[in-house]
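Run log // design_07
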């Protein structure tokens, strides 16, 4: 336990962990996506984190499916006319570099200063495919993020917000406040996030989460209502895709899990059933 605590220093380091799975997937001949920047962004620290956290490498298929689904939803919304993407808690995401994006598209990354500075250093010699901007902002500061959201909302007409890998680290009250702050901006038209069932959340809390909690990265959010949790906050479900079913199409999970993927999948509340997916939400008004 002491070794893992020394490897993972803070919540931002989980971005390096996620980059490891994108790097490994990119090396496959049948890759679901290609991220040629992921290995550099993960670095040796990312590999060490994956190798020392309990079950740190076991569910690579889920991380890969999450990235794939975010890619698909983002591409769909851009093709439908989104003129700005706001990536909250952007971490080490390299989509503005690796995806084919309209050159005029505004892409704004918001995260803590340390992780954005690190990414800028790694990608200093690379050129994004769209208009990329980085903003250093602590998103847990509600008073600070509201004027930021308002300023961004004034720059475009159809804005897509993405929060990949963020929600699980927030408690339900924090999620409600964030959802309402986003809904308060009329031009924030779509929102993509990943979601976990209470059953899966409990499993994650007992494994990697037990040690991540020691550095302030506790797994907290897995609403019993599923995507419906967000309806009172001004958001409605447009599409939900489960990670297991998505990954099974590409034969990524272990064989036993691929068999489970043939079972019917509910799009709403999952209860004690281990489930995770990616949700595309739209404004309810």
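design_07 sequence
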């Amino acid at each position: 336990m002491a070794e893992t605590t020394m490897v993972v220093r803070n919540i931002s380091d989980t971005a390096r962990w996620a980059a490891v799975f994108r790097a490994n997937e990119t090396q496959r001949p049948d890759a679901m996506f290609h991220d040629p920047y992921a290995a550099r962004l993960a670095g040796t620290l990312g590999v060490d984190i994956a190798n020392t956290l309990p079950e740190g490498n076991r569910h690579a298929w889920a991380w890969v499916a999450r990235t794939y689904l975010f890619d698909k939803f983002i591409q769909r919304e851009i093709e439908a006319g989104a003129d700005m993407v706001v990536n909250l808690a952007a971490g080490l995401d390299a989509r503005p570099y690796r995806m084919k994006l309209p050159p005029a598209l505004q892409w704004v990354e918001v995260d803590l200063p340390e992780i954005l500075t690190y990414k800028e250093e790694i990608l200093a010699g690379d050129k994004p495919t769209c208009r990329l901007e980085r903003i250093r902002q602590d998103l847990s500061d509600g008073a600070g993020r509201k004027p930021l959201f308002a300023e961004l909302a004034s720059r475009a007409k159809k804005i897509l917000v993405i929060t990949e890998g963020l929600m699980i680290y927030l408690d339900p009250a924090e999620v409600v406040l964030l959802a309402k702050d986003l809904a308060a901006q009329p031009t924030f038209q779509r929102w993509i996030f990943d979601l976990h069932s209470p059953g899966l959340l409990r499993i994650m809390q007992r494994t990697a989460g037990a040690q991540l909690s020691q550095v302030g990265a506790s797994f907290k959010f897995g609403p019993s209502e599923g995507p419906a949790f967000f309806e009172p906050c001004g958001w409605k479900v447009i599409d939900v895709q489960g990670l297991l079913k998505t990954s099974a199409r590409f034969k990524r999970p272990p064989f036993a899990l691929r068999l489970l993927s043939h079972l019917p999948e509910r799009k709403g509340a999952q209860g004690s059933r281990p489930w995770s997916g990616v949700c595309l939400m739209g404004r309810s008004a």
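The two ends are 48 Å apart (CA to CA).
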